[in-house]
Amino acid sequence: MVTTPNHRFSPWAILHQRCSECGEGRVFDGAFRMNERCPVCNVKFERGPGYFTGAMYFSYALGIPIIAAGVLLGKLLLVPHWPLHWITLVVWVCFLPLAPAVFRYSRILFIHFDRYFDPDGAGD
Q: Which residues cross the membrane (predicted)?
C-alpha cells in the first residue's frame, strides 16, 4: 500500500493507463468500466459529481487532430479528386473504432493533469 502521494507527471503511467498516484494500479477494469478506486493505493479516481466533465476537453483535443490529419491526408494524398465532404465523412467513419481509445485516454489524461495541478482537490 502506498502511503505518500506521488503527484509526478508520468508519461509511462498515462500510456499504460495506470493510477496517477502510484503508477501501478489500473484505472480501467474493462473496456469501458473504470475502477472506482486504485486497486493498489486505494485513491478514489472520481473526486465528485461531474468530475469527468473536464475529460471532454481532453477528448476534443485528442480527436480533432486525428480527424484533421485524416482529412488532410485524404485530400492531399489519397483521394484528392473526391469532394471534401465525402473525405470528411469517410474519416469520421474510420475514426469511430478509435473512439473508445480516445474516451479512455481522455479520462486518464484528465486524472493525471488534475492530480498534478490540484493534488489535494482544493479546487473543487
A: 57-78, 84-103
- CB of 67 closer than 8 Å to CB of 95: yes
Question: CA-CA distance, 34 to 77, in Å (whole number)?
Answer: 39
Q: Which residues contact 108 (CB under 8 A, 6 or more apart)?
A: 14, 17, 27
Q: pTM for the complete prediction?
A: 0.83
Q: What are the residue boundaries of the structural domains of the chain, listed by start?
A: 11-117
- DSSP helix/strand/coil, 84: helix
Collapsing DSSP to helix, strand or coil, 42 comes out as: coil
pLDDT at 4: 46
pLDDT tens digits for range 31-58 = 889 999 999 999 999 988 999 999 999 9
Q: Are 102 and 59 within 8 A, CB to CB?
A: yes
Q: Where are the alpha helices (DSSP H) in 1-124?
A: 11-15, 55-73, 84-95, 99-117
